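hey can u check if this looks right to u? its 107 residues, i copy pasted from the old doc so theres a chance i mangled smth
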Amino acid sequence: MSQKDGSSNTPLPSESNRTPVRGQQFTSKQLAVDGKHFEDCEFDACTFVYSGGVPPNFVRCEFAAPHFVFKGAAQRTIQLMSAIYNGIDPRIIEMTFDEIRKEPRSK
């Protein structure tokens, strides 16, 4: 349920709900990122696959030439957003991106 300020009562997944991956280097790998907590990792020319599960965390990570692929529920969300943007009103999706660009709310 949404609050008057647009926030949700649904708590964000904590680090404890994610599998930790720390201090690793990845080169030209395809990585499933659902439910992962990456910390102090380096990624070079990697493909990140997100399927709509628990969103990943990236803390103090470095990226070179990343590529993102969306599958399953995440892909369907992108398709819905595209349909809204192209068929209903692009301002709806632009407002969504405006919210994403705002400073993250403290937990």
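Helices lie at 72-87, 90-101.
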